[in-house]
Amino acid sequence: MAKHTLSTLEAFLIFLLVMMTAVTVALLSLLFITSGTIENHKDSGFPVTQSPPATLGSTTTQGSTLTHGSTATQGPPVTTTPEPPLFQNFSGYHIGVGRADCTGQVADISLMGYSKTGQNARGILTRLYSRAFIMAEPDGSNRVAFVSIDIGMVSQRLRLEVLNRLQSKYGSLYRQDNVILSGTHTHSGPGGYFQYTVFVIASEGFSNRTFEYMVTGIVKSIEMAHKNMKPGKIFINKGNVEGVQINRSPSSYLWNPPSERARYSSNTDKEMIILKMVDLNGVDLGLISWFAIHPVSMNNTNHLVNSDNMGYASYLFEQEKNKGYLPGQGPYVAAFASSNLGDVSPNILGPHCVNTGDSCDNANSSCPIGGSSMCIAMGPGHDMFNSTQIIGGIIYQRAKELYASASQELTGPLAAAHQWVNMSNVTVWLNSTHTAQTCKPALGYSFAAGTIDGFGSLNFTQGTTVGDPFWDTLRDQLLGKPSEEIKRCHKPKPILLHTGELTKPHPWHPDIVDVQMITVGSLAIIAIPGEFTTMSGRRLREAVQAEFATYGMQNMTAVISGLCNVYTHYITTFEEYQAQRYEAASTIYGPHTLSAYIQLFRALAKAIATDTVANLSRGPEPPYFKQLIASLIPNIVDRAPLGRNFGDVLQPAKPTYRVGEVAEVIFVGANPKNSAENQTHQTFLTVEKYEATSATWRIVHNDASWETRFYWHKGLLGHSNATIQWHIPGTAQPGIYRMRYFGHHRKQDFLKPAVILPFESTSSAFEVVTS
């Protein structure tokens, strides 16, 4: 492959960029590295070298034990909430569902997913929610909780803090083994809630404001589910979803053995698995759906916080079931959770060179003119909003069909198993006599290339298997040379960043990782700490099902739940790893990562099947870093223009709009991140309709509605504007409407601490007509 030759200007700009990053990290290291910045947790003796296996192969809000032991964080004294009495004489499970807002900041924070410099939040399209489901046996002896969260991924710090707060309230009822936290993987949610340096840098700092908002929302959703528990039944159904996926690394998929590929009709997993939850009277309670697709219908030019295609499916399902409620409100909860989505894109028109229109579906995802930055995959709609609706709408419709026809009841005991594992040092048994080893974390060159869903900002190309002297030298000078051991372990990956050997100001990647599984009757939910590719997921499911069958649990259904508990990037097959496209370059523990996970999850399955979970070692507990690099964006006082007040209308609504048009009002604004601290208001906006019979205004939309958009325009010296749009749907009733704006401004008088004060404003009334 011909190498791109950097111009002098390119080289200088790249060198300047990297130097600025390195200097920033170095300075922050000096600032934040102090004694006591980390709680060290002693290794409790989990052996990273295992024996050879026997066989190989709600409403919105703002603002008996299988394994034992406390979580990794030190919390306040435990005040156990009394357990409500449970009715026991029935067949089924106690079921509780809950949903709570976990949006966090919608301004002055990077969006997490694309790692694109400058893609920061500037408003909101939809709110983000945590959706919790608790299932307990009739006698209450065993219970499990599954939580799907509208965020990019669950961070280790987030999980540890949630478990700590649950322990403080409920004692040992909800623990690391029986609570799964799973991210939907929207790329349009805020970052800033991580503790490992790679992700802190990608988030442009740690935001305690957003972290606390998310933790509070997740815990609140679990509390709601706990309070709402009632006897009920769970039904399972499966079916294929067509027309919403492509494999974004098809050339990598082709590296898998032909005999294996021949067993499948597609290079993506099309099967959706749903759980239908009802009470004993048949009243609907909730839905969990698992389906493999990247929520990247909203591309890397987007600046509005939203839950993308899977969130849109949840939105449609909940609106259908919660008639008469605003979005985010009502008792029914529908979660569309992630699965083995690693190489699966919703941009079904495929990759094309945006400058020529030619296909760039090649091993390097590169165009003859412009390289990889010109190779972009598009969704089916006329813009990213429309593509999100199309993809999410199809997913919703299929889930609705499967839900309506679900008749196979889940019965049987509940179980949970969990271990912490040092993934940088697992001995993998390839067969009864030969072993291999996982590696210290490292990212390859193709990681920096990005994907056809969002290319990297520098001149890197997917499929790179040879390093570049320029980048190698620059890395060595700024960060030090990677060891020969890590380079040898990761072959054929050319290492760009040897993150497992970088520890300042904190480790750059996790070593200690959760492996976790819960079973609900004949369903096994495998909680994976990253993004498995299609074939990786198939191998893991097959191995887990075979392990259960070996020990007498026949006909188990295994479902992969993605982005759980801690984020470790991607997991490809050994064969896909050789191609070194983006997913392989991002498989941070080396070529045998998948084999290690299969070995570990088989051990959990065996323990559940043989009722020996209590004999599993907990493993080495992960760290919890107390002092992190704070956001470099300062908190400044908000200011209104002379003669104006916050919320004053700068551009009024027109007197009349037709259905299908966009009503828009511009107000004197204040920084929306203030509303993540002072949660006086639960929405940034409302659309209200005048009801003549009662002479009142009725709220018909809020900022969780798909039809509304809230844009924040940042000016100089604390000045800003806020634009509220209502994209008037065809279902809107003719009548008189108005829009309202709810915000908070930061005020600080001389020599006094800053305070955050609420304000609100109302547009003039306008009429909506049908023609």
From TrEMBL:
Domain Neutral/alkaline non-lysosomal ceramidase N-terminal, residue spans: 93-599
UniProt keyword annotation of Membrane present: yes
InterPro entries cross-referenced by the UniProt entry: Ceramidase_alk, NCDase_C_sf, NEUT/ALK_ceramidase_C, NEUT/ALK_ceramidase_N
Domain Neutral/alkaline non-lysosomal ceramidase C-terminal: 601-768
Coiled-coil ranges per UniProt: none
GO molecular function terms listed in the Swiss-Prot or TrEMBL record: metal ion binding; N-acylsphingosine amidohydrolase activity
Lineage: Eukaryota, Metazoa, Chordata, Craniata, Vertebrata
Active site per the UniProt annotation: 345 (nucleophile)
Protein name from the UniProt record: Neutral ceramidase
Enzyme class, UniProt record, top EC level: hydrolase
